[in-house]
Amino acid sequence: MKTFALAGNPNSGKTTLFNALTGATAYVGNWPGVTVEKREGKYKGKKNGVEAKIVDLPGIYSLSPYTPEEVISRNFILDEKPDLVIDVIDATNLERNLYLTTQLLEIDVPVIVALNMNDVLEKQGISIDVKELEKTLGVPVVLVSALKNEGIDELLSKADKVSNTAREGSSVLEKTEHAELVKKAVEVMKEAGIASPTFHAIKMLEKDEIEETNHPEEAKRIAGVLPEGVEFDAISADERYQYISSNCSIHRKGEKAERAKEKLTLSDKIDKVLTIRWAGIPIFLVILLIVFGLTFSEDLFFLGRMGVPFTPCFEGNPYFEGLFWTDAGINSPGVMLMGLWEGFSGWLGDLMNQGLEAAGAASWAIGFIDSVIIDGVFAVIGFLPQILVLYIFFSILEDSGYMARVAFIFDRIFRKVGLSGRAFIPMLMGYGCGVPAMINTRTLNTDKERVQTIRAIAFFPCGAKMALLSAIAGVLAENFGLNAVLISYSFYIVGLVIAILSVILMHWTTQREKVPPFIMELPAYHLPQFRALMIHIWDKVKHYLKKVSTIVVISAIFIWAFTHLTWGWAYVDPEETGYAGTVLHDLSSWISPLFTPMGFGNVQAGASAWAYSLSSITGIVAKEVVPETLEVISGGNLEAFVAASGITVGGFYAFVMFNLMTIPCFASIGTAKAELPKGTLKWTLLFWVGASYLLGIFTYITIDFTWTLAITLPVIIGVFVLAYFYNKKKTEKEEALKA
Ligand code: GDP
Ligand code: MG
Known about the structure:
By secondary structure, this protein is mostly helical. The chain is built from 33 helices and ten strands.
């Protein structure tokens, strides 16, 4: 079977095209650098009878790579010799995208250009003279819209034909005043029998590092051809752009081009407001708060608080009373959906229990089913609605292009402390799940930058951590009289702040280095696509239910078993005799003093401390297991359990804080191990545990013993000041050494 590779600039729509061609559901994000690994799929030919393997590559701006994922793209095209390269171009950014095209054309491989985003062109009233562009480039050009699924089968039919004839690489540089030089260099490579001589010769002239190490002999010879003082890489970049602007841009015409300009300025206008120096962050915080309100609020639009009288809907219904509104106000979509599941699963659970009792099942068996199915599986599924609602909003924010602006805003802050804001994109991806976020750090330039970003990603509240927040929302309201919206929101903000502060601290101390500047590219705004949104959500649901059917079921069985069995394998019924003497109770009680400094150890939570300790440990498997453990132990009545444990607000807040900030889950440990440089995983684990422990203590004493701020604040500020001066001194010394 033939192999067609998709290559192009970041955010040009390669993955969208890949999904359209193969029916896959790979992650599409409206910011550059989402795809970091190559991905393969089979083209599902419609009527054209074409069969081909499609490979989606990470986005690249040029074939002189800087980051690991850019190397993947270059190596694939050069070494694995696909039968054809489909160069995906964002047609609304023709000139910039063609820069890569001029390099792809230098390789001995058939190329076809897919001018993507044709739907946007049409809307802007711009047309591109495809025939003329084909003549200029010397390869076929097809207009497509990956998003709207237009022109795709046509593209593949043409691609199939083009791939049948070999193509020899040629360069626009051969048409400039440096033609002679290029010719000489190509001769050298041809003599050495290297494939794609034109490409390699030009890269050699550009003094490309990969090229020089791969062919040291030829490097020397070509260096001999190159006249003294000629910086060919700068020259070639300049000439490529000149060629494009004088030969290709003319094919772009727009009757309504004027209006298109106006439209562009609308996007610019939005950006002007959203990214105002002082307002960007407050706007982000307000948008986040609104999103949280829509997810967690039980008094939407504050109608209840403003005194509008409500009587709960479905009054008297045992399962669905207050589904849409209660006397407190209108429920948010997140709360409604959760209520729907609670009502349904409650009804199902009761039915199951009645059935078991009627069938004369033993009481331990009924207890087991209750624990595993109702307190375990049903409860954990119950967190899904709010996770989904929040996730939908985040997807909309991301797909519209807004999240890229948020990264841009934070980039400016990061730059002040000498960091590059590129790291912010994987961190913001961490709002969904830390695993792809950690993989995305491959787009960063250096190991140190990757290390500190991977560590900070753990502080971002991912979907699974939402399960914990969703579970404790009731406790916060019932036990401590706090507002669930504001508290959940505060955990998000704290996570963000801690992530930023920890990155700064690392950058000043253990991970010092000069970071190359990063130019944040802002993708165009567009309306979020319903289909893409549904794909995102369906993926999330699938992933979550998979976790429920594996990790959650197994942990529920494990927890139930070892909270009902003694060391001598005797069965006890905790409802009669309590948990004392069971295996997990004893083990957890034994370690619970460790948690005392954070306010939820043996001193504060007494006989219940073991449950908090146990869930903090089991939570390392997956964060959903934290609330699951508590639900199973408390028999599904978390509020009563927390009240009986005697834990304080500070202790409970610290418990949540510790669990949100500590080692995220097994999957993230595995990913971190794969992505981190050798030998740094243990330090990273230590960092996660240490940071969350200190943060837990700080949270507890700040809330319950506020006076301690008089000590802790100066210490924290002192640490940052010391780190700042340490970094400054070291940098000065290094610079003095250099000079
Ligand atoms: P990649 O980085 O090249 O893989 O680009 P993606 O496939 O992730 O797409 C980047 C953004 O462009 C996403 O927000 C897509 O929804 C959007 N996009 C992709 N193709 C089209 C298209 O044909 N038309 C429009 N309007 N948007 C598109
Ligand atoms: Mg992609």
